[in-house]
Design brief:
The complex is a heterotrimer. Chain B is mainly alpha-helical. Chain B is built from 18 helices and four strands. In chain B, the strands form two sheets. A two-stranded antiparallel ribbon of chain B has the order 1-2. A two-stranded antiparallel sheet of chain B has the order 3-4. In chain B, about 50% of the residues are buried. Chain C is built from 14 helices and two strands, in the order H-H-H-H-E-E-H-H-H-H-H-H-H-H-H-H. The longest helix of chain C has about 30 residues, at about 1-30. The chains are: A alpha/beta, B mainly alpha, C mainly alpha.
Amino acid sequence: MKRTIKLGLGAALALSVSATAVLAENVKIAFIDPLSGPFATTGTNGLAEFQFAAEELVNKKGGVLGGTNFEVIGLDNKMDGKESLINLQVAIDQGVHYIVQGNSSGIAHALTEAVNKHNRRNPDSQVLFLNYSAVDPALTNEKCNFWHFRFDANADIKMDALTDVIVQNDAINKVYLIGQDYSFGKAVAAAAERDLGAKKNTVEIVGNELHPIGKVKDFTPYARKIVASGADAVITGNWGSDMVGLGKAIIEAGFKGPIYTYYAASNGITRTFGEAGAGTINLVGEGSINPSSSPEVDEYIAAFEAKYPDHDIAQPRIVNVIRMLAMAIDEAGTATDVAKVASALEGMEADNFWGGKIKMREQDHQAIQDVYVMQQTAGVKHTLDNSEFGLETVVKVENASADMPTTCEMERP
Amino acid sequence: MTDTYQKTATVTKAPVFSMAQVAPWVIAVIFLMVLPIAFGSNSAITIMNQMMITIVFALSYNMLLGQGGMLSFGHAVYMGVGGFFCMHLMNIVEANELPIPLPVLPIFGGLFGLGLATIVGSFSTRKAGTVFAMISLGIGELIAACSVIIVAFFGGEEGMPGDRTYFLPFFGTEFLRQIEVYYLIAFWTVLSALLMYLFSRTPVGRMANAVRDNPERAEFLGYSARWVRFFSFCGAGFFAGIAGGLFAINYEILTETNLSTTQSGIILLITFLGGVGFFFGPILGAIAFTLLQSVLSLQSEIWQLYLGALFLATVMFFPGGLAGVLMMHVPAARMGRLGWLVGPYLRTILPALIGIAGLAALMELLFHVRHSATGDTDMTLFWVTFDSHSILPWIVAIVATVGGIWLARQGAPKLRETWHRANTPGAAKTTGGAA
Amino acid sequence: MDLVVINLIDGLFYGLLLFMLSSGLTLIFSMMGVLNFAHASFYMLGAYFAYQISMYLGFWMGLLIAPLIVGIAGAGVERYGLRRVHQYGHVPELIFTFGLALLIEELVKFFWGNNLMAYQEPEILKFALFSVGANAVPAYKVFMIFTSIAIFVGLLYVLTRTRVGMIIQAALSYPRTVEALGHNVPLVFMGVFGVGTALAGVAGVLAGPVLGTFPGMAFVLGSIVFVTIVIGGLGSLWGALAASLLLGWLTTFAASSSFQFADLLNFFGMTRPEDMSESYLRDLWSLTLPQIGPILPYILMVLILVFRPYGLFGKRDV
């Protein structure tokens, strides 16, 4: 990796300044996510988590391959597919072999497609795509490829866990599904319908609604319909301001039951819901920090909060990305031949930092891990948004959906 | 730019081009040919590709705004739809192994852009001004909203991917490498720019200017303002579609963001930044904007703030944009007096730049102190690393800001005076000029 | 039936909120002849200022002070920005407000960050005033409805019954003559701009707790406000009111309806295809009215512009 990088134009020139400033031996990980614009909070939060994990869990413990450090480079994709592809190109030119991305399945689709093409066309500078948060099931099913690994539980797995909880709750007989009108929102609704029908067909789906993403100003009419339908619980895949708008409207309209969500925490959401969300907002995800599984986790969170007071451990899986990548590189004995690293990562079983085990399934590169259903509560140890509220585990589903079928037909090089 | 002497002649006779008109095009072609030799890395080529696509798009937008006086808030739609059609065509070619080589693909993008523009233009160009602007906004919002609803065509949120390499090899190239794509895009950029330039010199192009400036008078001369606007609109749609086709080839994916109103807003910004009054203005705007976006977004998290400020400053102080500022110097240059301005410029603009840099440094400092991790007090600005929590950098930044702006204000009257003198035929260079 | 009643109330609430924004915008339009793209940005500023003030002095002081600050800021923009750009013509003016909207959003992000602000309604109004069926109507919304009605009545009174209002109305139509009569027309313009933006500020203060206070709030509402005044007829206060209420009810009822386009397709004699993945119309078959509710106003606007370019109540061309 000693080749001098000949970069052109101002942009690339500016890049070369930062590229030469660091040690050439570092294993570079390009973080491609929004660092400016409306979704910047999630992006900057994720970058902080990545950098912290690389520093604490790899570099401070001697690095990989006997002394090589990890370096996470943040590239701003402005939540735009085109910009992400430019970032990918810039990263590859800088000698990056690992890219991580998570916000928006749409961009993940664009990236996995581009990475696949790039690796086929340029066998000498291949890259791995470590997806830490894009949960569209298609990425590990019909659209899967050898270079893509997903560390988050996908939308189907999460819904599987969520519906397990719902069918065990006898108070829930009517469920209302509402989501944003795009691939992920539709995937959530379809999964909920399928799982509920299969597990307990006495649970009635009283509404299945999609609304335009980011365009609704006032969610009250939707909330009215939910209340009028007599639903006992609401399931939604909404995120960002759509989540807050919907949640607030539902609670204000007098809805008393639980609201099951995917992304209703952190980035100001927990704080905005505040007291009204306590006991109402439920969230399904991997990695729960209340209660934490070990003192090591407590220490890690405390150190993170001390360094980044404005950020939260909102995406626990990031730690697993860094740890498993380090293990795979050590096992493969190389950081540049990513085909070997990918082979090492395939089927890898490791200790999940947040408790339990995590396995990277061979057939489709989907991580199998414990999935939790959590609830917004006051007075937990690790709070979010610098508020007095946080998420507390209600139910833990061990090795969720380990036997879930996949349609992936992986082509291996 | 508009050469009034030839205006009447062009109605019947093909325009005759002088050496001075051909030269820039030849230089541009040679420049584009050698550029990749100087900057050969893939990322540089990617950025240059983006720049050229933006140039075509911005030029097509200026057919509306600059030449036709029509303010559109939904121009991205034509580029996006053209691109989406190209993408589908690409997939159809791949599936059926049709004998269509990749380089002709943008034509189809253009035709689809033209088709959509013909439909929309048939009712939106009846009026100019606010009616046109609002219809363009409405149509833009509608089609952008459709992009997530009509998944069969737009591919929903994942967008529509494709693969350019399955095409019939074109003289042995399969467009596997970025550099091959570069030359393809360069060819289309020059061709489209040339065609748009020629369009601006046809009778229709000339009448578009007339209708922009004084629709009543144009009507009295026997031209239908509406038809003139309609033709400009269709032309703009066609070239936006070509830009969309190039986009499809370069990125091999189109997503809903291609159609969004944000995209339409950005192209307005680019065109205005470059200058709407001159043909080459949007080219400057596209180059400057792409560079700014790539450089600034790597250097600063608040680059959009700078962009907004720059845009506002352009509207307020240089409504002619970059091209306007450049062309302001033509009279002085003709009289061989550009040299007079060097001194006063140095004395005003240099301090002003320092002042602006100081202000930016203050913003960056403030941002860093507020948003950086605890204990992470090191920050790098202008290639200097320092501690943002110590007092010194703040003092330096404040001094630079205040001092720079003060010095610039001191130099301004002198500059104005010299400027006036340099542009007045027969005026003498005074002793105070640059002595 | 309960749902219809509650939708009427919700639509009224949303319509009146739109009206608080569009009334200011339409006044400004009659004055300058240019749409102020940054109008919704002043709405956002209102919410953020009020949030900041409410942290120290409580909600009510925020409601009082924030619109004032926004109004002063608006007047400043007119005095130092727009008046300068005015000489270049209408298009640069429009572009100026467009750039201003961009800049204000970035400034808000710079100072407050990207996160949602936990801006809450006052405790005293945090209860359900009454219920229609199972649906509760929060007291805060009722308070908002009455506040906006009060503002409308006040505005109408000032414009039509007071001397200041007469001068404003005259200045809008015949600025030269009014100037010749010894009135300071630029000051009138600045004042109207300030009041218009202050109204947007009030809307922001009131809507912030309900609709959320975040950097995208201006963008979300921005273009819909234009749509409102274009539909109502530019420059017409009554038109703005009618269009606001129309859009309020339109979006509310569209969102709560359960109309499916499949019914429409069936009505036209088409049958649902067996294999949906092959059908080009598969998206239409699964489309519902709530899905496209928020884009209905745009369709309405385009139709109105095509068939009646002066809007519902307008007298002159857009």
